[in-house]
Write a structure and sequence with these properties.
Layout (H helix, E strand, L loop, with lengths): L11 E6 L4 E10 L2 E9 L8 H15 L4 E7 L3 H9 L3 E6 L9 E7 L2
Parallel strand pairs: 3-4
Antiparallel strand pairs: 1-2, 2-3, 4-6, 5-6
């Protein structure tokens, strides 16, 4: 899994490297009072080994250092396993969203308040 080629000027990648690629990655960008996590990915062959929790911890550290109040991410409605993973990591669903061209909820914004 390669994350370095996704870098852009608005968000910054954080990856868990292995020998030839990344095991997991996430992009972090301030959004309002929260640090927004995007393009969150864990390589399928290492799923369930705590890499998502490690990246969430990295995001928490960055958010606290910036004085932000929460972490946020968007998850498509259809990705039920992802909802479960992020709920286990302390995220809640405060709102629903609709992608352009749809007339029903297509994603959840999940949020974790930081203390």
């Amino acid at each position: 899994m390669r994350c370095d080629h996704l870098h852009n000027n608005e968000s910054h990648p954080h990856a868990l490297p292995s020998h030839r690629s990344s095991l997991a990655c996430v992009f972090l960008k301030p959004r309002g009072d929260a640090l927004y996590l995007s393009k969150f990915a864990v390589a399928p062959h290492v799923s369930g080994r705590g890499h998502a929790a490690t990246l969430v911890q990295v995001a928490k550290t960055r958010a606290v250092a910036r004085g932000l109040m929460a972490l946020e991410l968007d998850v498509r409605i259809a990705l039920i396993e992802n909802h479960q993973v992020f709920k286990k990591l302390g995220f809640e669903v405060p709102k629903e969203g609709v992608h352009a061209g749809f007339n029903r909820t297509t994603y959840f914004t999940m949020r974790q308040k930081l203390s």
